[in-house]
């Protein structure tokens, strides 16, 4: 299982990644909406996305990947 973590705050990303790592779940990090959309060609089971990103809103990212 792969999980995409999208957040411009590095501390938040690291906390979420660490939590998934405890359960042996592979995570991929993106610091922006643009980066998330570049990575989305990889199949993810879950995407956790901050709503307030510096470039593209989290809701727009969700709309484009669904």
Low-confidence stretches: none
Mean pLDDT: 93
Oligomer: single chain
Query: Beta-strand percentage?
Result: 15-25%
| End-to-end C-alpha gap | 18 Å
How are strands sequenced across the largest beta sheet?
2-1-3
**Biggest sheet features:** 3 strands, parallel
What is the CATH topology?
A: Rossmann fold
The CATH H-level superfamily is Response regulator
What is the element string, with H for helices and E for strands?
EHEHEH
Class, according to the CATH hierarchy?
Alpha Beta
Number of domains: 1
Question: What gross morphology would you assign?
Answer: globular
CATH architecture classification name? 3-Layer(aba) Sandwich
Radius of gyration: 11 Å
Question: What's the tally of helices?
Answer: 3
Helix content: 40-55%
Describe this structure in words.
This protein has 66 residues and is an alpha/beta fold. It has a single domain, classed as Response regulator (Rossmann fold, 3-Layer(aba) Sandwich), CATH 3.40.50.2300. The chain is built from three helices and three strands. The protein has helices spanning 10-22, 33-39, 58-65; strands at 2-6, 26-30, 46-49. The chain has a three-stranded parallel beta sheet with strand order 2-1-3, with helices on both faces. Strand 1 (2-6), helix 1 (10-22) and strand 2 (26-30) form a beta-alpha-beta unit. Helix 2 runs parallel beside helix 3. The model has no long low-confidence stretch (mean pLDDT 93).
């Amino acid at each position: 299982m792969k999980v995409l973590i999208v957040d411009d705050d590095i501390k938040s990303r690291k906390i979420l990644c660490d939590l998934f790592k405890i359960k042996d779940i592979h995570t991929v990090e993106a610091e922006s909406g643009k980066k998330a959309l570049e990575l989305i060609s990889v199949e993810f089971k879950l995407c956790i996305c901050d709503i307030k990103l510096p470039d593209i809103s989290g809701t727009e990212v969700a709309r484009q990947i669904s």
